[in-house]
Amino acid sequence: MSLEFAFDLLLALAMVWSAWRSLYATRLDRAIVMFIAFGLLMALAWTRLLAPDIGLAEAAIGAGLTGALLLDAYGALQRKKI
Amino acid sequence: MKRLLVVLGAVCLVVLLLGAMHDLAPASVELHAAVATNLTASGVEHPVTAVLLNFRGYDTLLEIAVLLLALIVILAIGMDATISAEATVDVRPLVNPVLQTLAKLVVPLMILVAVYLLWAGSFRPGGAFQAGAVLAAAAVLLHLAELLPSWQSPGVKLRLGLAGGFLIFLAVGAVSLMQGALLEYPLEQAGALILLIESGLTVSLGLILAGLFLLLSRDDGETS
Amino acid sequence: MTGGLLFASVGVILFAMGVAGVLLLGHLLRRILAFNIMGSGTFLVLVALAQRNGIADPVPQAMVLTGIVVAVAATALALALARRLYVLTGKLELSQDDEE
Q1: C-chain residues within 8 Å CB-CB of B70?
Q2: Is the CB of A54 less than 8 angstroms away from the CB of C76?
Q3: Over the stretch C10-42, which tens digit does the pLDDT of each residue have?
Q4: Is C96 among the domain residues?
Q5: Model confidence over A2-49: pLDDT tens digits?
Q6: The CATH number of the domain where C8 resides is what?
Q7: What pLDDT is attached to residue B222?
Q8: Quick check: B217 contacting A, CB < 8 Å?
Q9: Cβ–Cβ below 8 Å for C80 and B32
Q10: Which of B51, B130, B141 best probes binding to A when mutated, by most A CB atoms within 10 angstroms?
Q11: 3-class secondary structure for chain C?
């Protein structure tokens, strides 16, 4: 097993785990932060798949903007509950 | 019961798809080879940009239309919520001056990065999407530092910026339709046309993506 | 097993997890998260399966690039609808009556 494949395997496991946590974490804020981490891992996976274009877009849009949108919605929810 | 069924179904789906992928025959059409042979005719040197804006240009045209539509729908959904809410005083604490200074320092750099990405898109990874995303991030940062004027009622310039990318793209498409086929550029002007479309796309994409965030977070102090 | 096939398998697993999440989770924000993970899985399959022989293929890459931007627009629209629902009803879950 080459070093590259070992890295790919580790990355794949981390992606599945972070996706799992972002779906089933008990607290919603943790779930959203795990989703942002998942997006960054996805960006890494895209560069491993020889797609730096998608990696750039995923890091900026998938992780950054979607994460900001979700966190903002969560924050507004918490403020309105009080 | 429902939970068990769904989990069982998901596991079956995974097993079936994994099996199918394992036995999949090699692709009969070599798309990357076709792109590589036609790359010289596309007007750009980076294959992904060539596919996005030349070979499959109408996908990108429809994509910017979908984005514009999403923004308009969000604008429409939020509309009466803001009207019904009486103009409340902003309850948020004063913005950190460090954040404001940082935003003022970083935003010009981000705009520079966006322009670089746009320019780099014709021969290396980069392009309108990434540049637009960076622009949107800059606008969101300005919004969080409260340096950006509110979007309560978009003015003419803003509307023009939002729709500009789509309109430029549409105009190029219409002109090319008159001269032949939809979005089929003449060889010698292809590079310039793609750069024109990409510039419009970058500005519109940045504004629309930023608008998605700004419009959603504007009703913050709405309820007590 | 090549890197392409490995990431395509991850894509399949993510898609199935997302589907299960969309069907099982009640909270709307969690459903939107699950929908996003479903989309990410689809994108991974699309790109990784096309280049399982290790050669970069720009066509699915461009498609996915378009898809990511559309996905964020869909997420924003879903969030806007969810927040509107919350303002109107005070709930962030769809009613269960017609589901059973």
Answers
A1: 73-74, 76-77
A2: no
A3: 999 999 999 999 999 888 999 999 999 999 999
A4: no
A5: 888 899 999 999 999 999 999 988 899 999 999 999 999 999 999 999
A6: 1.10.287.3510
A7: 45
A8: yes
A9: no
A10: B130
A11: CCHHHHHHHHHHHHHHHHHHHHHHCCEHHHHHHHHHHHHHHHHHHHHHHHCCCCCCCHHHHHHHHHHHHHHHHHHHHHHHHHHHHHHHHCCCECCCCCCC
